[in-house]
């Protein structure tokens, strides 16, 4: 089983959006996918509840006391985490993943919060030195804006506790497609193919990195 944790304590950076779109992507590939919503806000559970029965199944995974309970033979586990987690709880989520995806928004406030988060990851060096892979994704980017350019520069120079560069995998534009698809319990891989061509293209580097 490949477990993918979507993590960034900054609220609203796109964790649930990435989680549900990854779940939809792997489900429509025919994989047995489980989605663990570890956030009491229940955004990804709400999305799953809206999902039409005709679409490829995504199985909800249980979460309690820091443990995830997945259905037998799950191939891909996607873990959506809450905002504002630090310390032991953050360490707990880092331990759950083989791949860790960090969405970031291109605003100065979000970039500063992301800097503090990366610093906190340094204190979890012992976990990250293990076999966890990390990557960041710029999300809700209005291309050609100054904020987007700053995020570019920042993401390009982030170093991991191991001294390696944090791979900056892709840029996802701000698009109503995410909102419209989510309203229907769909990912952009299952929604309005003509309108989502560009968005799906932007996901490709992340999907390759995840081995999809
Ligand atoms: N690329 C995008 N384009 C347009 N809207 C987006 C995009 N990504 C996320 N959003 C919207 O931004 C809002 C916040 O996104 P989301 O809920 O995924 O963030 P989050 O990190 O899970 O938030 P929280 O920390 O509260 O759990 C949502 O309304 C979502 O639909
Ligand atoms: Mg969320």
Account of the protein in words:
By secondary structure, this protein is an alpha/beta fold. The chain has one domain: Rossmann fold (3-Layer(aba) Sandwich). Helices cover 40% and strands 22% of the residues. It is built from eight helices and eight strands, in the order βαβαβββαβααβαβαα. Strands 4-3-2-5-1-6-7-8 form an eight-stranded mixed beta sheet, with helices on both faces. A hairpin with a 2-residue loop joins strand 3 and strand 4. Helix 1 packs parallel to helix 2. The longest helix has 15 residues. The protein is globular. The chain starts with a strand and ends with a helix. The relative contact order is 0.19. The model has no long low-confidence stretch (mean pLDDT 91). The site of magnesium ion has 6 residues, from helix 1. Adenosine-5'-triphosphate binds next to helix 1, strand 7 and helix 7.
């Amino acid at each position: 089983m490949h477990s993918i944790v979507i993590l960034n304590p900054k609220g609203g950076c796109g964790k649930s959006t990435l989680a549900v779109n990854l779940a939809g992507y792997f489900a429509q590939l025919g994989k047995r996918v489980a989605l663990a919503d570890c956030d009491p806000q229940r955004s990804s559970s709400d999305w799953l509840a809206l999902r039409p029965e005709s679409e490829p199944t995504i199985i909800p995974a249980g979460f309690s006391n820091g443990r995830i309970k997945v259905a037998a033979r799950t191939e891909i586990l996607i873990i959506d985490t809450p905002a504002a987690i630090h310390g032991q709880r953050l360490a707990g989520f880092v331990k759950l993943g083989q791949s860790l995806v960090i969405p970031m928004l291109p605003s100065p406030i979000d970039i500063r919060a992301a800097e503090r988060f990366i610093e906190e990851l340094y204190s979890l060096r012992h976990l990250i030195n293990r076999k966890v892979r990390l990557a960041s994704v710029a999300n809700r980017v209005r291309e050609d804006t100054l904020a987007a350019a700053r995020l570019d520069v920042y993401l390009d120079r982030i170093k991991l506790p191991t001294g390696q560069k944090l791979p900056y995998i892709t840029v996802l534009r701000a698009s109503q497609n995410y909102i419209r698809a989510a309203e229907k319990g769909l990912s952009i891989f299952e929604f309005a193919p003509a309108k989502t061509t560009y968005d799906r293209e932007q996901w490709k580097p992340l999907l390759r990195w995840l081995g999809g």
